[in-house]
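Please produce the structure of this protein holding farnesyl diphosphate.
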Amino acid sequence: MLDKDRMPVHVAIIMDGNGRWAKKRNLPRVAGHNAGMKTMKKIVDHSDKLGIQYLTVYAFSTENWKRSIAEVTGIFKLLVTYVNSELQELIDNNVKVKVLGDYSSIPGDAKKSLEKTLEQTKDNTGLQFNIALNYGGRDEIRRAMRTIGEEIAQGKRRPEEITEELIGAYLFTGNQQANSPDPELVIRTSGEIRLSNFLLWQSAYSELVFTDVLWPDFTPEEYEKAICQYQSRQRRFGGR
Ligand code: FPP
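Below is the modeled complex.
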């Protein structure tokens, strides 16, 4: 049973298996992403119901540009569909949307819809929904290093000032951007057991839950099962 008093504050999800879900049904890969988008909506809703404060999903990685043009275009079209059809509901539900990743290079219409969503939800105080788009964990750390390096070169900082807190502040989850705590729980669907460049710095102490369920088949019940697994483990942060 889920213990409502011990809910994770931040859950992060690698939504994997859309392509295999489509292949099993002889459908194009984009149909899998479309089904995945519907699952994502349900999980946003359910996170809100469970009182989770931050939900981060891996929607598009820095490596995903290597996929076919049709698939990449399809994913961004879905993003436009999602934000346009959901914006009012996100506002009504007091959800704040943020992006992790440099989204300056995504297709123009997707960027425009996204910016509208960020702007219109920025003062909301309920669930914070972080969408990782053109996101890569190493790229994020590289960017932070570069900014800090530039500040040192300009004499604004000394090397001794580089602390874990400072590095954290310059990540996409830092206080200038998505301002989110580290996730206590990272879930990956579809039976793959790796992090694939997702939240590398932030997941240092996260509990990892892997399920064989393909993302389009992931239900609120499966979600609760993953949270139960998290609750059943004792988190020690390297102490005793
Ligand atoms: C991974 O499955 C999924 C993605 C790379 C895209 C995720 C996108 C969505 C859930 C819908 C769109 C929503 C937004 C916000 C853009 P995969 O294609 O790697 O699956 P496979 O490993 O079975 O091939």
